[in-house]
Amino acid sequence: MTINYNNKTFKVAGDSDDVTHFKYYQKGDILWGEYEGGGVTKGSLIAKVEPNGTLQMHYQHLNANLEFKLGKCVSIPKILQDGRIELFEKYESVNTEIINKGEITLIEVI
Fold first, then answer.
1. Cα(12)–Cα(97) distance, rounded to whole angstroms?
2. More confidently predicted of 97 and 53
3. Distance of CA 11 to CAs 46, 51, 84, 87, 100, Å?
4. Which structural domain, as residue segments, surrounds residue 94?
5. How many CB atoms neighbour CB 58 within 10 A?
6. How many domains does the chain have?
7. I need a surface site. Which of 18, 61, 63, 71 has the fewest CB within 10 A?
8. Is 41 part of any domain?
């Protein structure tokens, strides 16, 4: 499955308007992006795009309290019936005393 993420926007799935939004850019097997909202003041990420579209990612951001958060994430894509991309993500923060792990779902914004 070849997926082109270039110039695509995603948001955390849910009904709230105050969620994190992501803007992705891609060149070959390299993806980078920016994100903000939903408690994130400003963030950036870089990822390797696997042949099946999975993203092996590292991220960093400042939260609303201006605390740094650094971590890694694996994003697994699914193409929805309407053609949009859904990403199931497992993340792990690495710069905190207690390692924070979690899962979120992102949905492409058209």
1. 26
2. 53
3. 17, 23, 12, 10, 21
4. 8-109
5. 14
6. 1
7. 18
8. yes
